[in-house]
Amino acid sequence: MCGIVGYIGKRDAVPILMEGLQRLEYRGYDSAGIAVAHAGSLRVSKCQGKVRELEKRLPARFKGSPGIAHTRWATHGEPSDRNAHPHCDSANRFAVIHNGIIENAGALRTRLQADGVLFRSDTDSEVLVHLIAAMPEGPLDVAVRAALRLVVGTYGIAVLDAARPEALVVARNGSPLVLGIGEHEMFFASDASAFVRHTRSVVHLDDGEVAVVRTDSFETSTLEGDVTAKSPLTIAWSSEALDKGAFAHHMRKEIAEQPDAVRRTLSGRLERRFQTSHLGGIELAARELLEVRRIKILGCGSAYIAGCLGAQLIEQLARIPAHAEAASEFRYRNPVIEQDTLYIAVSQSGETFDTLAAVQELKRKGGRVLGIVNSVGSTIARECGRGIYIHAGPEIAVVSTKTFTCTAVAFALLALHLGRIRDLSTAHGDRLLDALSALPEQLEGIIAREEEIQHMARHLASCEHAYFVGRAAGYAVAMEGALKLKEVSYLHAEAYAASELKHGPLALISPETPTVIVMPRDDLFRKNVSTIEEIRARRGPVLVVTHPGDLPTPVDGAFEVPASEPELDPILLNLPLQLLAYHVALQKGREIDQPRNLAKSVTVE
Ligand code: AGP
Prior knowledge:
Largest sheet: 8 strands, antiparallel
Bound molecules: 2-deoxy-2-amino glucitol-6-phosphate
Radius of gyration: 25 Å
Strand order of the largest sheet: 3-2-4-1-10-9-11-15
Strand content: 15-25%
Oligomer: single chain
Number of helices: 18
Structural class: alpha/beta
Mean pLDDT: 95
Helix content: 25-40%
Low-confidence stretches: none
């Protein structure tokens, strides 16, 4: 989604902002723009397309400070030069960048037009700059507050007044904004990756907050003007974590990072003494956890699918009924909130609008919610107030890989913790701790056999459609495998519970439609063998991801993963499917890290 970056300080803002825009590219966008103050006037450049297009278009000697810059992901108005941000007022004094949606933009536009304002774009965002320019002369933050009080909708905005370049004003309501505190310079952005090369000291704005940012200071307050107190956090990762290094794609790098990422998820959390896990952040005592009768997990996309795996882990290990639901659906169906249910919100970015809205709805109705989140200090993490950070490190590719795996590991830790409070035996706890500790090495072993997956990928790269099937936890793995393939290769991939195949989809099985079967050697193995036979009888190609051992029936390709404890098997079975999606996309020449139409962090409804 849209990305915001800003700089105020003694240096020329342009190279800092351009680098910031590149860092924000992963969020997904269709146009980019920049505005800087120079000798009392505004200099603006913007265009449809990539940041490198903007770079080419920048006029010679385009310099200035302070400055703001933006990557736009179109909501109102097609992607075009004129709809790209920043937007300026008629006198070209103020520049505004905006992330979010102004719901009453139509009415505000009509009113401004009646007052003689000429609009230069089709965006909802442009109303903001004209509203600010129409306010009586006075401090910029006063004008911004007054304008925002007229607005209904969501926003992260930044405002530059070329006539008074000593301060920038930013505000947020529903779209992330984080300040970066430097030495005699300040930054802000939609996420810290835009400025982490310059500072790791950050302050997250809350909804309804406005900040006045100067070279040596910042001041935060509410929309009504009441001062708020903020203390900076230090982010744990450095800018190297954002680079591709020796890899061709961030997705491939992030797949390779999984063993270390899982080590971080596990670090300090394996409690050998009591054959359990230690999860300080959940802040719920054993007595309170014993009162939990149900668990409901909410998330979107891969976070939701990781929640499906989590629900199964919790049911298996703790015998607490658990269920995952898409956060977007949950919040729209006026859910019944129960006191003895524990709600868990899952999000890599911690900024997904639908998941955040579900958490807010839950809290409003008195529900208990904890977060499983990657991005430290993110909005969902702060809104939940307690939970488990997965510590996977920054994930730049639009598709989730390492964060899916680490989320599943976090669920395993939680399920172990809940299980050991209830009836899970010490012996079972011990076995799980051993199996969790072994995961990083097992993941390494799978990644080292990438060539085998490359072969399997050829079967899919030449097709238009594919099925992914599995039973029980294997079904959740199939769902994630299909989502991954769809996102990066643009193949039509559908996941089905293997048991459902003959209730419909079998009609579409043909030599042109391969099926990937996730089949651990568990109680359901024989049933999956029958599924293979049903597909082969219709001459459908079959690829399987399974455990070592002979297959009683021929298949077109098989990848064997090492066995773990049965409950943890899905974590290992999923990794080959990530590599499979990657190699199909590679063979098809897709734009792997930024698939068309997708954004990393979906901060609008
Ligand atoms: C995963 O590959 C997707 N890009 C997407 O489904 C993602 O998982 C979803 O948008 C949720 O994001 P979050 O984890 O940041 O909340």
